[in-house]
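Re: beginner question about structure tokens

> Can someone show what the tokenized structure looks like for a real chain? I only ever see the sequence side.

Sure, here's an example I had lying around. Input first:
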Amino acid sequence: MAMEFPSDLQYLDSHEYVRVEGDTVTIGITAFAIDQLGDVVFLELPEVGESLTKGETFGTIESVKAVEDLYAAASGEVLERNEDIIESPEKLAEDPYVAGWLLKIKLDGEIEGAMSAEAYGALVQGH
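And the corresponding structure tokens:
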């Protein structure tokens, strides 16, 4: 299966993506990460109003294979979380980039260390 990495997103080496729209940042996990995890069975995400600190864990994703930490691509306040995905985490695999977003935050500062779709694709190609 060919993996898609939309070019309008930025990617982190911890396999999260970010979509920046003004000072609002949408955070999710990549198709590669979902493929590696297998069937996702549980998501733990922060509540609206909580603050994220860039580089710190903000939640966990659990699959039939493993439990992995989720890392914040940026610092900011949680504006919204995807309740549909929390209730039905198996849907992540169907559409990780549009319907499968995890959080929206109000950006506080910069996003550092993010890479283009091409660079991320090259990074995961060897796996």
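Each token stands for a local structural state, so reading them left to right follows the chain. The radius of gyration is 13 Å.
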